[in-house]
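User: I'm curious whether this sequence folds into something compact or stays loose and floppy. Could you predict its structure so I can see for myself?
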Amino acid sequence: MPTIKFTGPVLVASAQENEDGSLDLISDKTILESLNGLSYEDEAFSDYLYDGEETEAFAEHVSGGVLSFSYDSSSSSLIGFIEYQLSRSLSADEVEALEEYTVEQLTDGIGSNFSQERALSGEVTPFINHEELSCHQTS
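Assistant: Here's the prediction. I'll summarize afterward.
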C-alpha cells in the first residue's frame, strides 16, 4: 500500500507562559526523549480532506494521517510526522495540495487543537516546524 509521509523538526514549548505571554522553548534531552511515541489520535488529518476544494478530488484515496512524534537519538532532537495511507500514488499536483492542506491543519486545525489540549493540561507542547516540512511518497 502506498504511503505519503510529511516530516519536520519539532520545537517544544514550555507549559507555563512568561509574564509577556510568550513560551520558552525546551531543548532538554530528557524532556524531548519523554515525547518519543507521542501521538494525537483524537483526529486524523484525512478526516477533513472532503472539506477542501483542492483535496476533495483525491480524498477517497487517502486515509490516516495521525500527528506523531519520534525522538532521534543521533541528533538529540524530536521529529514530527504525519503519515497517510494511499489506495493509489498521488500526482505531483495532488501531493502539493495535500502538503498545503497538511500545513493548514498543523497551524490552524488539528495541530492547534492538540496544542490547546496539552497547554490546558499543563503539559509541554511539541510543534512541527511546518516551514521545514519534507515529503516522502512510497509506492
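Summary: The longest strand covers residues 3-17. The radius of gyration is 16 Å.
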